[in-house]
Known about the structure:
Structural class: alpha/beta
Mean pLDDT: 91
Number of helices: 13
Largest sheet: 6 strands, parallel
Number of strands: 12
Amino acid sequence: MNKDIIICISPEWMGGGCGVLRVQQNVNYINQNHQHFGVKIIMTPVPIFDQNILNITRCVFIQRPFQTLPWLKEYKNLQPKFGYSIVGEVDDNFTTYKGENIPDYNMSSLTPRPWDAIDAAARENLKCIDRMITATDYLGKVLRDKFNYWNTVTIPNVCERALWSRERKTFFREKPLVLSASAMQHVRPPQPMSQQFPAGVSGLRGDYDGLWPEFLIKNIDKMDLHYFADIPYFLDPVKDKITMHPWQSTDLYIGEYNRIRPDIVIAPLKNNIFNRCKSRLKFTECCASGAVLMGTDFDDSPYSCIHPLCKVSDKPTVEELEKVFNNIKNNWKEIIEFQYDFINKNGEWLESEDHVLKWLQVCGFPNRSMI
Length: 371
């Protein structure tokens, strides 16, 4: 019997975000080319136990298996009968590690989470999972160090060439268009006293560690600064000189990004475990679009691979940031070529066979390379 089915269980698949980037785009692409890859994927928000389907299932794939999943043990119990593998994936921090979890500047940290219960569910679920795909090597380290789980494979987040790839960018504005394309959780805006926050909430600069705000304010007339979703509160003195774009769902974000066509994307990060777990997707997007990433580098930073002229320390001065900004303006052609080479050589397009075949091999399918 030809076992050519993957059951992909993704509770987030209709909600955008991680469900689209980590799972749905892979599923769509593989299903569109199922004759070549020899596999079809059933994507579902709930488990499937139809025995006719399990008979032809090669893999049960579960996105973020770190909540209570009573049905997972049933899949494990049925595994000897049907012979499928069980694979999980994770692309962000999900636990407390070395005393850290969600940083205080992320507004979601104000909602208490049952970390002990989350860890207990993770330990129980990992007993049932044959392999874990992680978006970063550091997430694999967390699984090894905290949960003694060693069977991990790193598969980075990728960009879909069909959506991202336009003609190669061959221009760089004299007054660079600088974009912050990050989500709102990188800064904690101050909140007045309210029923939700009886004592109010103080503002925190968050990932804008060091003197990033002072650099942006001082140099605002030397750049055309744009923000997705919201302008940080500490840029209020120059907010009239900043363009704000509404936050976009994952499927519309790419179109808006390509319409803006930034010259530089800024990616400040605070040096913490939460950010070490993050993927380098913002850099991959820059490689795909022809923007230059100006990002924070530290030990295990997601941006350790960016061009050396674009790296910023984790507590930069205004002078350091100005130097990097000018380095980019003076060397943009070299940097953009470096980035185009990076995404092509590392196979970080969705359509790269290196990416798809690695994903399928983790799920138990043989290598079906065209070459």
